[in-house]
Amino acid sequence: MTKKLIFLSFIVLSILISSTLINLDKAKATSLNVQEFSNQFISENAHFTPLINFKEFKITYKEILIKADVSNSFVELNHAQQFGFLSSYVKHLRYYLRTELKSPHLRTKSINIICKTKDQTYKLTNCIPDKKVEVKSDSELYIDNKLILGSKEHKILMEQYLHKNPQFDFIDQDIEIIRYATKLFNKLTVGGNYYNHKKDSKVILDLVTEKFGITEQEYSNIYKKYFFLFE
Questions:
Q1: Distance from C-alpha of 23 to C-alpha of 26, rounded to nearest angstrom
Q2: Confidence band of 122 (pLDDT split at 50, 70, 90)
Q3: Residue 61's closest CA among 102, 8, 16, 106?
Q4: What is residue 130's DSSP assignment?
Q5: How far is Cα 199 from Cα 181, in angstroms, rounded to an integer?
Q6: Predicted confidence band at 221 (pLDDT cuts at 50, 70, 90)?
Q7: How many Å apart are CA 200 and CA 132, to the nearest integer?
Q8: Which terminus of the chain is more solvent-facing, meaning fewer CB atoms within 10 Å of its CB: N or C?
Q9: Cα separation of 127 and 110, whole Å?
Q10: CA 142, chain centre distance (Å)
Q11: How many helices and strands, by DSSP H and E, does the chain display?
Q12: Segment holding 177, helix H or strand E
């Protein structure tokens, strides 16, 4: 009896070790995916290049942790700009996780970015309050552990800025498209409470492209460019 217990214990232990190693390999591979996306994002958005230098990408059971250095140019931005810069990257990352990587266990993890200078530590936290509505997330910016700005306050500041600056008239149609898509989403999913990614996204895409006479790629480009204004 004792030999059987020892043998069974050995089998269970072997399975646990194998499972752990497999999960570690998956986490490492996914970390590389996130790193590749981030490098590509920087290369495609030249205004990001002088501001941030990604150093480390780590995926744990609870979070996606990203460490980076930021330049003096980043420090010189006001808090709203710093928040907008980091949250824009995070939301594009979430879009990538949701539509390209298609990894269910990653899509709802918290994302934390820690950026350091010689004198300060910036931290942006991003989480999904309702795991059933993974397209909606909230961010908070901390400087040296002090809360500076959140998503709701930043959204108000951005909309005020757009209304006060007429030079941005050229994006009016794009914003109209995003507002229309947002209204469709809220109506179709009852405010996001009944969201089916595969079904609802296709319905919204078809209605938006038909109404505005644009292609799916054109809508995707508009969405990725402006959707962080209307979370």
A1: 5
A2: very high
A3: 106
A4: S
A5: 15
A6: confident
A7: 13
A8: N
A9: 5
A10: 17
A11: 8, 6
A12: helix 172-188
Q: Record the pTM.
A: 0.64
Count Cβ atoms within 10 A of the Cβ of residue 136 and give its class: 0-12 exposed, 13-18 middle, 19 or more buried: middle
Is residue 109 within 8 Å of 64, Cβ to Cβ? yes
With helix as H, strand as E and coil as C, how does 29-60 read? HHHHHHHHHHHHHHHHCHHHCCCEEEEEEEEC
Confidence of residue 155 (pLDDT cuts 50, 70, 90): confident
User: What pLDDT does 27 receive?
Assistant: 45
φ, ψ for residue 125 (rounded to 5)?
-105, 140
What's the gap between Cα 118 and its chain centre? 27
Record the tokens describing residue 164, joined without a space: 């006060």
Cα–Cα dist 231/226, whole Å: 10
**What's the CA gap between 64 and 121, in Å, rounded?**
18
Check: CB of residue 66 under 8 Å from CB of residue 38.
yes
- Backbone CA torsion sign across 42, 47, 49, 53: negative
Residue 10 has pLDDT above 70, yes or no: no
Read off the amino acid at residue 105: H
Helix (H) or strand (E) holding 15: helix 2-44
